[in-house]
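Pipeline run #58 for the internal structure catalog. This entry was flagged by the ingest filter as a single-chain record with no existing model, so it goes straight to prediction. Upstream metadata was stripped on purpose; only the residue string is passed forward. Reviewer on rotation: M.T. Logging verbosity set to normal.
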Amino acid sequence: MKDSNGPINLNFHVSVDCVVFGFEFGRLNVLLIERNMQFEGREYNDLKLPGDLVSKDENLDTAATRVLRELTGLENIYLKQYGAIGSPHRLKRQARDMEWLKSIGHPEEIVVTVAYYSLINIDRDKVNNFIIQSNARWYKVSEVNELAFDHISILQQALQTLRSDLKSRPIAYELLPPKFTLGQLQQLHEVILGSKLDKRNFRKKVANMPYILPINEKQTDVSHKPARFYSFHSKIYEKTRKNSF
């Protein structure tokens, strides 16, 4: 939910929350909104997921796309709906959460939120140059332990879904450049899965993927033995997937 009074055409019972994963080689980040507020004479600073109520004239996917565009200025980002959360007490976990909602003109209602996760390569997409909201910051996923409302459980569910999708769908290539080394591919998997992988076994699995093909090009200007580049072929993947099914 945005920190401002929304237009009267908002549906106060339905929202979208977006878990924006930002990949950098060596770490997996999540984009969070800093929230500052006064409650019972004390100042609180905490974090929340980006999100907003859904307008009555837009569908869920459109609302999630709008939230990302208003947050990062980017469009055509990988976006997946992965769940809906409708606990009647999800907004009332702490008294100060309800007080904050009142301050932005949000009625005290039960809100069902539809959760999405998105993937951004921070360096490749230069997303730091586009983040529009001044209170938005990247945080290392492994270091996020507490969020406002029930957002920590939404984040944890997003991470579980991302890790599951990584093993069964070609989402890794949303984060890699058009040509990449097997070392880069393995590192991406290790960062998202949060564990080290055996190099030999990993390359055996890749060798059995007909849609990952070597190209006649190697790294240049590196201090180690130049590695061969590979590329992902979506048409071969789709054909292989259909034949397998």
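catalog note: The chain is about 30% helix and 30% strand.
catalog note: The first helix runs from residue 60 to 72.
status: ready for reviewer M.T.
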